[in-house]
Fold this sequence. Notes:
The chain is mainly alpha-helical. The chain contains five helices and no strands. The longest helix is centred in the C-terminal third of the chain and has 61 residues, at 142-202. It is rod-shaped and about 150 Å long.
Amino acid sequence: MLRDKFREFSRDTSGIGQERVDGVNGLADALIAAGHSENATVAEWKDGLNEAWADLLELIDTRSQMLAASYELHRFYHDARETLAQVQDKQKQLPDEVGRDLNTAEAMQRMHTAYEHDIQALSAQVHQVQEDAGRLEKAYAGEKAADIRRHEQAVSEAWAELRGSSQGRRRLLLDTVDKFRFLRAVRDLLLWMDGVRLQIEGQERPR
Length: 207
């Protein structure tokens, strides 16, 4: 808000000021061209006026840069906090349950695949925070730079933990599904063997 107001103020001031400075410069040039008796004084006043105008423009530009830098820093803090909250929220959503049988384990595996797609969408936000932090750290020094680094590290560490947890759960679900598939194959084979045994026992015994 403050940055936008100053940008408007700067635009208006520069436009109006330049017009007025040009007008006074025109008067000075006319006086000098007409051979005014105090040409030297007029030229001196003209130079002083242009120097003062250049100083004012430089002040406006410096203020604009400070406001832009402040806006960028506050936006970084906001983005870092928001991204950290989203990553931590996704971490809390990871369940411990792996399923009681093959059907529920496979259903949980499908749910986890969707979950991984969701967290992958966060990766762009995390990378943006890391990129902004790297750039801003170079522009600031001391405690401010350290604070920027702390915010970036909090996001990076939470993101690494989330990815590690997600990968660990994917492996656990894969192992669980494989276990249930193996147990089903064993059960099916045992049932088949029981059937074969019953067939053999049902046949007439040789005398």
